[in-house]
């Protein structure tokens, strides 16, 4: 039983209000800066009430940042990474939970340990593989003394290079494994008695049951992949065709001419443009996101 007291209630409400202000105030400053002209934004102190140039700054930021192309690129990359992570993590967790083979728990813990290895740590070997995907297989053939010459397969400046190295996720595997462990064994036995194989049981039983987990994972991974900056910056050299929205921001902060001060009102408008898609996805999937993380009704 949770004890409720007026003092504790007041303290928790004050803490929530303070946290809300701390989170919302920077966003308010960005919105206000995006609604003023250049001279007003550079005043000290800057006004904290919105101006009348919001639509003008948004249009300028959209045109200067070429967001019609880069937003599409980011949507393709974020959608591809999210779908790939959901598929790979669900299949890996299904294999670990429902197939009894040697070293399956070792495999799980090896996957789980990769949570301590962020992308920045493995960026060099990942980039080396992206420059020539078949190089590891060529090295194996060379060591085995086989005279097989594999062609070069370069993933630079491609959607595949932006998506495929990011699809593996230990977080998704862990979430799906924990959910699959809560599924009654009777479901698998009933499906087996009805003649359903492993693939049919996975697609027609487990996947419909894991919609909440899927939505929670999709929300997390879409926001994560949308905000990726370092990996696209390394893989993409043809920024005219494959640049993402986060990469495009660094082109808007400096002025268009050398030595010109940053046009902060346009830069803040560009930040709002880039911020919009993950916010929309989070709002749309908020109920499923919370349900997928805390629901106990499996």
Protein described:
- The structure is a single chain.
- With 298 residues, the protein is mainly alpha-helical.
- The protein has two domains: 1-64 and 253-298, no CATH class; 73-237, Orthogonal Bundle (MetI-like fold).
- It is 69% helix and 0% strand.
- The chain has 17 helices and no strands.
- The protein has helices spanning 6-33, 38-41, 54-64, 67-98, 104-113, 123-131, 135-143, 159-163, 170-182, 185-193, 198-209, 211-226, 230-235, 239-242, 245-252, 264-284, 286-294.
- The longest helix is centred in the first third of the chain and has 32 residues, at 67-98.
- The two termini are 24 Å apart.
- The model has no long low-confidence stretch (mean pLDDT 84).
Summarize the topology:
Blueprint: H1 6-33, H2 38-41, H3 54-64, H4 67-98, H5 104-113, H6 123-131, H7 135-143, H8 159-163, H9 170-182, H10 185-193, H11 198-209, H12 211-226, H13 230-235, H14 239-242, H15 245-252, H16 264-284, H17 286-294
Salient structural properties:
298 residues, 69% helix, globular
Please give a quick description of this structure.
The protein is mainly α and 298 residues long. It contains 17 helices and no strands.
In N-to-C order, the SSE pattern is HHHHHHHHHHHHHHHHH
CATH architecture of the largest domain: Orthogonal Bundle
Number of strands: 0
Structural class: mainly alpha
CATH topology title of the largest domain? MetI-like fold
Helical percentage: 55-70%
**How far apart, in Å, are the first and last alpha carbons?**
24 Å
Sheet with the most strands, sense and barrel status: none
- Number of domain units: 2
Q: CATH superfamily name of the largest domain?
A: MetI-like
CATH class of the largest domain: Mainly Alpha
- Overall morphology: globular
Radius of gyration: 24 Å
**Spans where pLDDT lies below 50 across 5 or more residues:** none
DSSP helix count?
A: 17
Average predicted local confidence, pLDDT? 84
Which band does the percent of strand residues land in? Answer: under 5%
């Amino acid at each position: 039983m949770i004890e409720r007291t007026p003092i504790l209630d007041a303290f928790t409400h004050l803490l929530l209000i303070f946290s809300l202000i701390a989170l919302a105030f920077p966003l308010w400053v960005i919105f206000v800066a995006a609604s003023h002209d250049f001279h007003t934004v550079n005043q000290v102190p800057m006004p904290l009430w919105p101006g009348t140039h919001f639509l003008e700054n948004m249009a300028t930021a959209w045109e200067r940042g070429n967001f019609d192309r880069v937003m599409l690129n980011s949507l393709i990359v974020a959608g591809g990474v999210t779908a790939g992570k959901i598929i790979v993590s669900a299949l890996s967790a299904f294999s670990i939970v429902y197939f009894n083979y040697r070293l399956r728990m070792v495999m799980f813990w090896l996957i789980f340990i990769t949570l301590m290895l962020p992308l920045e740590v493995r960026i060099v070997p990942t980039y080396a593989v992206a420059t020539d995907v078949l190089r590891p297989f060529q090295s194996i053939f060379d060591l085995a003394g086989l005279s097989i010459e594999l062609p070069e397969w370069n993933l630079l400046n491609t959607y595949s290079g932006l998506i495929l190295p990011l699809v593996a996720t230990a977080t998704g595997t862990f979430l799906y494994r924990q959910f699959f462990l809560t599924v009654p064994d009777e479901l698998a036995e009933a499906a087996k008695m009805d003649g359903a194989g492993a693939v049919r049981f996975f697609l027609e039983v487990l996947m419909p049951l894991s919609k909440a987990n899927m939505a929670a994972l999709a929300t997390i991974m879409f926001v994560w992949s949308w905000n990726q900056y370092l990996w696209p910056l390394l893989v993409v050299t043809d920024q005219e065709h494959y640049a993402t929205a986060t990469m495009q921001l660094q082109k808007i902060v400096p002025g268009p001419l050398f030595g010109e001060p940053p046009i902060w009102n346009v830069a803040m408008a560009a930040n709002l443009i880039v911020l919009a898609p993950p916010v929309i996805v989070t709002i749309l999937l908020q109920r499923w996101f919370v349900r997928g993380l805390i629901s106990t009704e499996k």
